[in-house]
Amino acid sequence: MWGKFQQSELRIEVSADEKKLKDSLLNIEQLEKWFFPLKFQDKHPNKLESGDKFTIKLGLVEVRNEVEIINSNCIRFLLSGGIDGYQEWCWGDGWIQSRLEGVSILPLNFAQTMNLLRLRTFVGAEIGERK
């Protein structure tokens, strides 16, 4: 694997409850709306489950993901290909946290920050639409 070891852990406040955050991370239809550049090419059930696999393409770079663990407030993906490592998402009422570690030539901290901000915007817009 080319690249350098990188690690980042970010936690932000969001205007959403634990259930909304969980749905935004585990419901495939919602996940595709905010997680860039995620597009599932294979048929998957509506929600991610342990053992599910999918690929994210970043230009010519492919990042393979496998859902390692899902529990009531956390999901962990094993990453391979363009990133060799893992990403973990944890959430609660009003907060979301992402931890990313891996070897890659990609700027992992930047991508992680952008996805957290996209998630916060997505859940904020979803809540605003219901009011």
Q: What does it look like?
A:
The chain is built from three helices and six strands. By secondary structure, the chain is an alpha+beta fold. It has a single domain, classed as Alpha-D-Glucose-1,6-Bisphosphate, Chain A, domain 4, CATH 3.30.530.20. Strand 3 and strand 4 form a beta hairpin. Helix 1 (18-26) crosses helix 2. The protein is globular, with a radius of gyration of 14 Å. This is Activator of Hsp90 ATPase 1 family protein.
Which key phrases capture this entry?
131 residues; alpha+beta; Alpha-D-Glucose-1,6-Bisphosphate, Chain A, domain 4; 6-stranded antiparallel beta sheet; 3 helices; 6 strands; 30% helix; Activator of Hsp90 ATPase 1 family protein
Query: Which sequence of SSEs, written as H and E, runs from N to C?
Result: EHHEEEEEH
Please state the structural category: alpha+beta
CATH superfamily (homologous) name: START domain
Number of helices: 3
Mean pLDDT metric: 88
Provide the domain count: 1
Which blocks of ≥5 consecutive residues have pLDDT under 50? none
CATH architecture: 2-Layer Sandwich
Terminus-to-terminus distance: 48 Å
Shape: globular
Largest sheet: 6 strands, antiparallel
Assign the CATH class. Alpha Beta
Please state how the strands of the largest beta sheet are arranged side by side. Answer: 1-6-5-4-3-2
What percent of the residues sit in helical stretches (DSSP H or I)? Answer: 25-40%
**Could you name the CATH topology?**
Alpha-D-Glucose-1,6-Bisphosphate, Chain A, domain 4
Rg from alpha-carbon coordinates: 14 Å
Strand portion:
35-45%
Count the strands?
6
Protein name: Activator of Hsp90 ATPase 1 family protein
